[in-house]
Design goal:
The complex is a heterodimer. By secondary structure, chain A is an alpha+beta fold. Chain A contains 7 helices and 5 strands, in the order H-H-H-H-H-E-E-H-E-H-E-E. In chain A, strands 4-3-2-1-5 form a 5-stranded antiparallel beta sheet. Chain B has 12 helices and 4 strands. The chains are: A alpha+beta, B mainly alpha.
Chain lengths: 207, 200
Amino acid sequence: MDGIHDLGGVQGFGAVEVERDEPTFHADWERRAFRLTMAAMMGGLLAGRFRHAIERMDPAWYLSSPYYEHWLTATATGAVEAGVLSEAELDQRLGRTFALARPIRAPVLAEPGTSSARHRHGLGSAVRVREWHPLGHTRAPRYVQGKRGTVVRLDGVFSVPDVEYHCTGRRTEPTYSVRFEATELWGEAGDPVHVDLWESYLEAPDG
Amino acid sequence: MAESSQPHRHHSPTTPVEERVEALEALLIEKGVLDPAAIDAVIEHYEHRIGPMNGAKVVARAWSDPDYRARLLKDGTAAIAELGFGGPEGNHMVVLENTPQIHNAVVCTLCSCYPWPVLGLPPNWYKSPPYRARMVREPRVVLAEMGCHVPADVEIRVWDSSAEVRYLVLPERPEGTDGHTEEDLAALVTRDSMIGVARL
């Protein structure tokens, strides 16, 4: 989805604020939010749910809340979607409405599609990133969609997140690191960016 | 008053996010998903046992041992495992070598992917919208603002960790360190230099 999380290249932000001697956790609630999320992940409760739940937070809330509030919200949302908890239980325990991420809008995929294990593009190949705007989860950042780049590294074969989040089955595909020149991304000279992409995100440059 | 020396931790009212943590935590314990006693050791590991000191050992070894350096650049995961580091968010490591012509820097524009076994959990700025938004669009400006001045004739290569690979930058070995032991060298390596937002 073209969500608020997909921040690469978005303009208007100010300086990066660096905290000197930053602790791992700033407050006990952050450690506890990390702990309950790790427990849910290790228990398999968030498989295929966690990142997409964060992405479905209201954009204004996403930008204005601390990082571990994203984790807390995604874990609660994932637990409800997994059927482990109900919204009513959360609300009752909290004594008011327990805010969750927005519902999944993407349709459930009946079939995961065909897996592949062999890289179709070689080192140095010219590729273009498919341009599309799914309602569901994807790991193809918006700023490279439709853009042409060059394969610079062949990586492993992994489950496609776009499928994993919306299907009980899994599809695995080779992944790549693709180099994009600044002129292609932004229309002006600058330093190149490399993005890691699944095979089905890529097409022939003139395709 | 006693309150002034022992700040708000025990005296201030619970904030809304703390209340939400408490509610979800209590329910997950009831449902048997969260067993605090069992998982506290895991949290201890993430909070104290992993961190940039691990990555610094990898870098120092690479600076000291050309064969190790070659293995590290060829198969980062295996070479890092030789020093005993690995696990979640570190199972597919690629090490990026800085040279006099190339400066590498890492970002995750979509979330906060970061090589936990060698750098620990990421700092807030790495997860922040300004870094994630601007680092791909104007990396040279962002780095300069962060105090990292990359010479104009050096190419900055930005790496967006958007799939399963996690990156570690291998900084250039500083001048004047010829007689240093690996331990001496490791003490020079900063977290930021291994993300690529600092030069040594």
